[in-house]
Design goal:
InterPro entries: DOCK, DOCK_N, DOCK_N_sub1, SH3-like_dom_sf, SH3_domain. The chain is α+β, with helices and mostly antiparallel strands and about 130 residues long. The chain is built from three helices and three strands. The longest helix is centred in the C-terminal third of the chain and has 23 residues, at about 85-105. The termini are far apart.
Length: about 130
């Protein structure tokens, strides 16, 4: 729901749209991990997150997440092989997909805006898979 800078001892910094895995509940805090920092376990306030029912995840968001994971491996390979143009282009598309994913997860869009954004995400995924 809100960015959290992790301003406490053992705090886990989070950005709006991040997913977290909750490991433990500690009063007004949760202890858990974030996929962006898979080896880091830390604290974050309960009031800063929204708990979602995993059975109700938007399929476009799920596809976007999977594609970003796959593309990150390709992106690393392009960096190692010094394919500068492809590396830069893929980086821009991945950052755009990440931002769109955050917006979709934020649940602040109207139905029309959500549908329009979903179509843009699908279009970018199709472009990248060519």
């Amino acid at each position: 729901i809100h960015n959290w800078h992790g301003d406490v001892r053992c705090g886990l910094p989070l950005d709006v749209g991040d997913s977290v895995e909750i490991l433990e509940e500690c009063g007004p805090w949760f202890r858990g991990t974030c996929p962006r920092r898979p080896r880091v376990v830390g604290l974050f306030p309960k009031s800063y997150i929204h708990i979602k029912d995993l059975n109700k995840v938007d399929p476009v968001v799920a596809e976007c997440t999977q594609v970003l994971r796959e593309w990150s491996e390709i992106w690393k390979k392009l960096f190692v092989e010094r394919e500068t143009y492809k590396f830069t282009t893929l980086r821009k598309v991945m950052l755009s997909l990440l931002e769109s994913r955050r917006e979709l997860l934020g649940l602040t869009l109207t139905q029309d805006q959500t549908l329009e954004l979903q179509l843009k995400v699908i279009s970018k995924i199709d472009w990248g898979n060519r």
